Amino acid sequence: MPTPNEAIRTSVCALRGNIQGTTKPFMVLSFLTILAVATTLTVNRAYSNSTVGLVCVSAVANSCPAAPAVFTADPGSQLRVRVVTQSIDAFDSYSVAVGVNQSILKVASVDATGGLLQNLHYMICTGENGDPCGYWLGLGPGDVRVSASGMVTQAPTTGLLFTLTYIVLARTAASPIVLFDQVSPSGWSCGCALFSNSVAQKGFMSDVQGGSFANPPRNQPLIGDMNHDCVVNILDIGIIARAFDLREASNLWNPEADLNHDGMVNILDVAMAGMHFDQRC
Ligand SMILES: [Ca+2]
Ligand SMILES: [Ca+2]
User: Fold this and answer.
1) What residues are neighbours of ligand 1 (ion), with CB under 5 Å?
2) With CB atoms 3.0 to 4.6 Å apart as the test, which of 23, 99, 100, 165 could cross-link to 108 if both were Cys?
């Protein structure tokens, strides 16, 4: 009487014999290749859970700020975000992903100039057809996954990994810049950056410190911009229209809708907003 294990082994051997006898051995090969890839991906998860050093977004190339960086730039201008490592072990490759709201910040370039490792690769995720990140379930629109390799650095390593240049598309009071990494296409992710040292044959994680982006404060309020989205349009006229005919004594009085400050909301206020129609900050 075979043991359960022997029984399984016997059936597997029988199955293998059947497979070898099929006319499509390439299918078996494909299956084994997929299995091998899956196994490799599992191995990638074997990074130590403890972290070493820090990777941050920074305005400067040679240090991380004590508190998360706040970047400011006007719509239409460019924003430079440096991704910097601080007090980290020696490494000769890394990978890290940077996420932003792509309706506010659009990636213009990813650049390793002045960086610790020069052999740079990156993918910009768009969420559109042909998105190179489509395979990586953990990545979404606005994310950039960056990896690089080069000569082993000297520990402790502090310095620039790469520079991201964004074009500022829209106004925001605060929009996060997130650092993270995706290890597997299955969507497994960590709030960390990944490093490896092929000479010492080890991999390790670092902590990450993201930041945020905001537009600089406006000097002059935009007349008629009732909803403060930096453009005067039909939405703002609608807000004034809802306050139409109200006076200061009214329960629903909206002082903001009284653009000419005469104590009532009427056609004069609508006309005043109309004079600034389509204006932007
Ligand atoms: Ca508005
Ligand atoms: Ca008025």
Assistant:
1) 225, 227, 229, 236
2) 165
